[in-house]
Amino acid sequence: MATTATARAGIKQSAGKSRAQISQLSTFTWVGLDKRGHKIKGEYQSKSVGLVKAELRRQGINPQTVKEKAKPLFGAAGKTIAPRDIAIFSRQLATMMAAGVPMVQGFDIVAGGQNNPRMKNMLVDIKTEIEGGSSLNESLNKYPVQFDELYRNLVRAGESAGVLDTVLDTIATYKENIEAIKAKIKKAMFYPAMVIAVAILVSSILMIFVIPQFENVFQGFGADLPAFTQMLVNMSRFMVQYWWLVFGIAGAVIVGIVLLYKRSDKFAHLVGRGMLKLPVVGEILRQSAMARFARTLGVTFKAGVPLVEALDSVAGATGSVVYNDAVKRIREDVAVGHQLQLAIRQTNLFPNMVVQMVAIGEESGALDKMLFKIAEFYEQEVNNAVDALSSLLEPLIMVILGVLVGGMVIGMYLPIFKLGAVVG
What we know:
The chain is mainly α. 75% of the residues lie in helices and 5% in strands. It contains 16 helices and three strands. Strands 2-1-3 form a three-stranded antiparallel beta sheet, covered by helices on one side. A hairpin with a 5-residue loop joins strand 1 (26-33) and strand 2. The chain is flat and about 95 Å long.
């Protein structure tokens, strides 16, 4: 028995070493001649130049130059792996598996087409794990950031049911839809944020550089300045002398709010509820949360994930702290035997239409279809609301900028107008 245990430990240790060695492979670029004497080139991952040359000769290629690929100046990690990259990978792998391509070969093909070194290394590592006997779900566990719990649960369900290609295709569609919603929300927030930033920058430039020039002119008038102009001059003096303090305090406040939001659940809830109460923007965030809730739950339920387990994955996908907690309460109610529609109603966060459609889905046995209908409806609502917000904000922002910058310009020219009246 001791010998058997020792042997097993040795096998595990050697397997671990093998995986560690494979994960440390270097990338080499090569140039060679094929059997017809034509020059070809490519890349190959291996431990040494000699092994690359041997592999090329085995394939009938006469290697001319083989050298290790130069690493980027700031490291070889490459750019980060975006959700869009994961969606594309899922779609490609699903297409190849549906066409009968073995999974390991599919990983080889997808990895070979990657321009992002970090993405490529991750896929090679996952492929190595699968070759070592691990399932796809187990292999993905090494990368919980790129493949979240929802992704892994869906893959596990697909592997268990033997429909992994279908599930991967569903995941790709799901991620594309979710990223489209995120892009809409970012668009709604980005435009006003940028305009506010530009307004602050322009005002600061006027305060620090332009108004002091006018102040020098005003000093030769020998008369009292209008109250509004004097206020602007006083503000300008303060900005010139303490601009570093103003920007320092502003930066510290922003950093403090971000850190407090991440570390304090109470503050995060306060901000979350406040955002949902904002006019127009709050409604967009609410509709987005419901769309993401419905689509995520629909995808997991359709893949065969049990409802209680599916709600675990849905909680983190709503994009809202408030709805995150609501989904956790829904899960607790469903776990003790309540119907999903009743649990949703108890949160007082979902409109009656959502509750009724979920109830119909439960009664008819077509819950996933109803959830997809809800998701489509609210995704369209988000699109319409973002377009309406953009149309509403454009004239409003122009008015704000006009009042802000125009007010400063008028304040600076008031003494000149006053002097002209006196001279006249």
